[in-house]
Fold this sequence. Notes:
Elements: H1 8-17, E1 33-37, E2 40-44, E3 50-56, E4 58-59, E5 66-71, E6 74-79, E7 92-93, E8 100-105, E9 108-113, E10 118-119, E11 135-140, E12 143-148, E13 154-159, E14 161-164, E15 170-174, E16 177-181, E17 187-193, E18 195-196, E19 206-209, E20 212-215, E21 230-231, E22 238-242, E23 248-252
Amino acid sequence: MNRLALPFCFLLLLTTMYQSPGASAQMVPSRLIPFRHGTRWGYADQNRRLVLPLRYDEAGPFIGEVAWVREGTLYGYIDGAGNPVTPVQYTRASNFYRGRATVEQGGETFDINLSGQRLTEPAPPELEEEPLEHGDVVRKDGKVGFRFTVGTATVAPTYDEVRENYNGLLFVRQGTKWGVINSKGKLVQPVAFDAIQLKGNLVLPQVQRGGLWGYLDEEGSTLTEVRYQQASPFLGDIARVVLPNGQTGYINANGQEFFE
């Protein structure tokens, strides 16, 4: 699949592909975050102060100090000062990943580097990462629990499924509902969610209830209300969301919204 700036469902899948289960909880705050006011986009700092003006029809996150922007139906790339890295000339454009982005121009799809130059060599293979496990699943009478290898905490085998997020949280399921347990074995979110995203960046988990999505923080506490129609995994310290009215925007790792 091409890593292209497509409708939100494609962006959600792509950011999921690029986040490993063991992603570090230590996030470097983004200097600039896409900011939407009405239908126009610019970039703001972490305090929501506008830094780059509202001149775009859509804007993507900065990766390696380069971000895609859309004007009309075409995409281009800018640097952190708002200067063009490429002309606005692509019919599709992706976030940068490992120093390269995929674009489409004239019906042809190819990769470019952070300077906007076309790349001819194929992308290097993905690195295999072994997630750090924090314990073992225990089973009894058809139910499962968990025994942490660090400390003495245990989770009684009363659940139908236990999944680890490799950052100290457990996602537990009873029937069709999910809850969250912390590294001390305490249930920090009741077994009431319809779904928990089990792929992508699990440091700040996405949870679903009643057809809407929200986020938890790295301790399993509520980061945002469950209020978004769609919610992407965090890319660094920002995540793209879609509101029930179909409008898109970004939030940071504190749950602060960068749209109005």
